[in-house]
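Practice problem 4.
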């Protein structure tokens, strides 16, 4: 595996980790105030639904052997993972972005 493929897989795996950790913050009532438990599920749906295509594109882009197609898919996955950017999962955005740039910048 090349460097961009490893970075893309790690970034995608961090998005999977985000699927398990994000509900704890929203459904656990940690938002505080009147928006505690009732506002959480409403705010949780959008980043979760956008991150699913980012996860799929990140995995496909890192498993494809074609550098150009893989780089484009990794860059699209990085842009789609922006709603999950807050907290620890900003690392997945950065890793997917670097993986896409590495895949497109090197000549094969």
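Answer key:
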């Amino acid at each position: 595996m090349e460097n961009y493929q490893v970075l893309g897989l790690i970034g995608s795996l961090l998005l999977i980790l985000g699927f398990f950790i994000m509900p704890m913050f929203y459904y656990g009532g940690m938002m505080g105030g009147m928006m505690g438990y009732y506002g959480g599920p409403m705010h949780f749906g959008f980043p979760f639904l956008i991150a699913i295509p980012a996860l799929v594109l990140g995995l496909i882009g890192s498993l494809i052997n074609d550098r150009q197609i893989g780089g484009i898919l990794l860059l699209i996955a990085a842009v789609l993972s922006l709603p999950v950017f807050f907290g620890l999962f900003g690392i997945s955005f950065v890793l997917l972005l670097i993986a896409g740039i590495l895949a497109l910048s090197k000549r094969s």
